[in-house]
Write a structure and sequence with these properties.
By secondary structure, this protein is mainly β. The chain is built from two helices and eleven strands, in the order βββαββββββββα. Helix content is 9%, strand content 35%.
């Protein structure tokens, strides 16, 4: 996949990232809707992405943090912080980039989506319970 160049709304933060897959995802969880006033559309970034500028992070749950521009507040990324297989996985906000060219392939927290909008087409849809089961401790005590 080609490397993408993007920036926040005010231009203070510049981001370079390579998508890990030819896919965009949409998250309808309560926190993403509060963070964006809508839905977070993102792509999984390969390791080695870079962000320059006034980046702030916020621990938003027991398993993740969110990053934003300290100047304009633009959403930058959502990163998994819990130990385990998904540790460090980063979902880069697609709106930072002119056009990723990737299709929307999945929606998370579909049971939390407001009734006022819907995306056209078919894609994988996961409920709150299905998403959160990915982060539940296994019988050995590690995150899945």
């Amino acid at each position: 996949m080609p490397e993408l160049q993007g920036q926040c709304m005010c231009g203070a933060v510049t981001v370079t990232a390579t998508p890990a897959q030819d896919a965009l995802g949409a998250c309808h969880c309560d926190q993403c809707r509060r963070w964006t006033s809508s839905v977070l559309i993102s792509f999984q970034a390969e390791e080695g992405y870079a962000a320059l500028g006034p980046v702030k992070t916020f621990t938003s749950s027991d398993w993740a943090e969110r990053a934003f521009c300290a100047d304009c507040g633009s959403a930058l990324w959502y990163r998994i912080t819990v130990p385990g297989e998904k540790h460090g996985q980063t979902q880069m906000a697609a709106g930072l980039f002119q056009d990723t060219g990737h299709p929307l392939t999945h929606e998370l927290y579909i049971d939390k989506k407001p009734q006022g909008y819907a995306f056209a087409g078919e894609r994988q849809q996961m409920t709150k319970a299905e998403v959160e089961a990915m982060f539940a401790p296994s019988e050995e005590g590690d995150s899945q």
